[in-house]
Amino acid sequence: xxxTADADTVRRLIYGxxxxxxxxxxxxxxxxxxxxxxxxxxASEAAMAEATLLASKPSxxxxxxxxxxxxxxxxYRSMSADLRKSGLRSVKPYAGGLTRSSKDTERxxxxxxxxxxxxxxxxxxxxxxxxxxxxxxx
Length: 138
Prior knowledge:
Largest sheet: 2 strands, antiparallel
Distance between the termini: 68 Å
Order of helices and strands: HHHEEHHH
Structural class: mainly alpha
Strand content: under 5%
Helix content: 40-55%
């Protein structure tokens, strides 16, 4: 479940400081927060969703007044690209088991999925380096 602070941060990033404007619902914003590793990537996807929602609305002209969403759509797309770049900078790969302490921590985790392989898993029990062939005693 997305925290209110993260959802508000996403709204501030895409709506320019306000947490109450825009067409995305609270459930939409929470979904983006829950399905992304950080708020900038969530905001990137939310901005692209906002652009998509605006693109589905037709431009209208009534008398001297016209409504055209092209500028807003382009702004949201550009914002999405910028937020994606900054969001990807903060994503760091994790390679576990590089130190003894991290190996011990992972091994002691009761919720850990057991490894699918182990050292020596494919060793042939009928063969060893002490066989006559390997020791040169044929």
